[in-house]
Design goal:
The protein is α/β, with parallel strands linked by helices and 503 residues long. Helix content is 28%, strand content 20%. The protein is extended, with a radius of gyration of 33 Å. It holds the Pfam family Phage_sheath_1.
């Protein structure tokens, strides 16, 4: 009988048509910081007791962290006379075979068990044993018991860590270094995801800078700012708002820009050690990338760690405010002219007037430096990047390009390696156009459209398994310069008499 014969009903699924496109997450901060007294890892422990007095043994994992919670210990009665005390290890299970006398009664004391465990190489590689009290009491047989309480280091060096609660994480960040202060600055603005990379604080500023810049160690592990590139593989999130508050200079920022370009992220950077607006303008000339905004000066405010007023990093607050804007308004809004929380002053005098272009703020903005002002609260003032290409002069132009590129690309994994029928191409184009219509309705873009270009998609190109889909879009310009044209006229006096009569 023919193999395709069937007497009944069969269903063949045809999964064609457009797919919904989800916008990539944008309010994810990538923070590189120091924290010399950050919380350490906690070793797992186990107190194994018996009914006999002073017969306890405490086991402590040799390696701190959650891996110690998988270690188990048991005491076994050999069930025979004149047995000797012996320790064996299988994986992470430690078995103590207790000694007995000529009548088969257990004779091993806590002290003897601890000595035996510490003397067995495989067991001592897992735990350290210590008798409780005098250790003279005879122990009793018991089943497996797990070590518990092991906790990993919350911020291991040069390792991206996902912080979902920046406020709670401050307790593990310690009191020194930049991590706790940076988290506090972010929390003042918003609750968002933060990818933290902690680096070691060096013996001097130069060594700390080297640690911040990082690289790749002998084991292939990325360190310093380069560790942000490992975040997506390790944590499943991609940091898109990057900064190294209080530790960035031209060298650090230059390296961070390279990371941002790989991640399609945006960098907020200070103007280094600039003490005047002229120095800040000159400092900005170090960069020509669209992925960075230079900010000068810093904020001031109360520091609870020192119970005094001190300088507060503008970069850390820019990162938090950027995430807040993404959540509340969208990635099409620039950082400028939004109130900043948690600050009470500006570290340098910056003259600003809403109507006068010849001010300190106007000078800085004209040199693509974002500054700080005080008007109904403290605010960032300026939307310019360091781009040499006028197409990406504004912060939101760069971020719009990044978000659209990643969203459209990542949304079409499903289409790769599918048979390239015309229907597939149509589905891709229609799906992109549907997303553009959604963004247009939400005011994220002015408009955008995708299309299939027959001229570039020649038979030879298609035969090679390649497909070109074109699309264009218009980002939303920020209203940077509002020109109000005021005129004086006497034309409203022409009918003055009639107005009097009608009054």
């Amino acid at each position: 009988m023919a193999q395709d014969y069937h007497h009944g009903v069969r269903v063949v699924e045809i999964n064609e048509g457009t797919r919904p496109i989800r916008t990539v997450a944008t309010a994810v901060i990538g923070l590189v910081a120091t924290a010399p007294d950050a919380a350490a890892a906690v070793a797992a422990t186990l107190l194994k007791e018996s009914a006999a007095a002073e017969s306890g043994v405490t086991y402590t994992a040799a390696t701190a962290g959650t891996t110690g919670n998988a270690i188990r210990v048991r005491y076994v009665d050999p069930g025979s006379a004149s047995a000797t005390l012996a320790v064996t290890v299988s994986g992470k299970d430690i078995t103590v075979r207790l000694a007995t006398d000529t009548e088969g009664a257990i004779t091993s004391t806590a002290a003897e068990v601890a000595t035996a465990v510490n003397g067995e190489a495989n067991a001592s590689a897992l735990v350290t044993a210590a008798e409780e009290g005098a250790g003279a009491g005879v122990v009793a047989a018991s089943g497996f018991s797990n070590l518990t309480g092991g906790e990993d280091e919350p911020f291991p060096l040069d390792t991206p860590v996902l912080v979902t609660d920046p406020l709670g994480a401050q307790g593990d960040a310690g009191d020194t270094g930049t991590l706790a202060r940076s988290l506090d600055a972010i929390v003042d603005q918003v609750k968002t995801l933060v990818v933290v990379v902690r680096v070691a604080e060096g013996a001097d500023d130069a060594e700390t800078k080297t640690n911040v810049i990082g690289g790749v160690d002998g084991n292939g592990k990325r360190t310093g700012v380069q560790a942000l590139l490992a975040a997506e593989a390790r944590l499943g999130v991609k940091p898109r708002i990057l900064g190294v508050p209080e530790l960035d200079d031209a060298d650090v920022t230059s390296e961070l820009i390279g990371v941002a370009q790989k991640l399609r992220a945006f960098v907020y950077a200070s103007a280094g050690d600039s003490t005047t607006m002229e120095e800040a303008a000159m400092y900005r000339e170090n960069f020509g990338a669209r992925e960075v905004m230079v900010i000068w000066p810093d904020f001031t405010g109360w520091d609870t760690a020192t119970s005094s007023t001190r300088t507060h990093s503008a970069v850390a607050r820019a990162m938090g405010l950027r995430a807040k804007a993404d959540q509340a308004i969208g990635w099409h809004k620039t950082l400028s002219n939004m109130p900043v929380n948690g600050v009470t002053g500006i570290s340098q005098d910056v003259f600003w007037d809403l109507q006068d272009p010849n001010t300190d703020a106007g000078y800085l903005n004209s040199h693509e430096v974002t500054t700080l002002i005080q008007r109904n609260g403290f605010r960032f003032w300026g939307s310019r990047t360091c781009s040499t290409d006028p197409l990406f002069a504004f912060e939101n132009y760069t971020r719009t390009a990044q978000v659209i590129a990643d969203t459209i690309a990542e949304a079409h994994l499903w289409a790769v390696d599918k048979p390239m029928h015309p229907s597939l191409v149509k589905d891709i184009v229609e799906g992109i156009n549907a997303k553009f219509r959604e963004w247009k309705r939400q005011n994220y873009i002015i408009d955008g459209v995708a299309w299939f270009d027959a001229e570039i998609n020649t038979p030879e190109v298609l035969k090679a398994g390649k497909l070109y889909i074109d699309y264009d879009y218009t980002p939303v310009p920020p209203l940077e310069n509002l020109m109000l044209q005021q005129r004086i006229t006497d034309r409203y006096l022409v009918d003055f008499a009639d107005r009097v009569a009608a009054a």
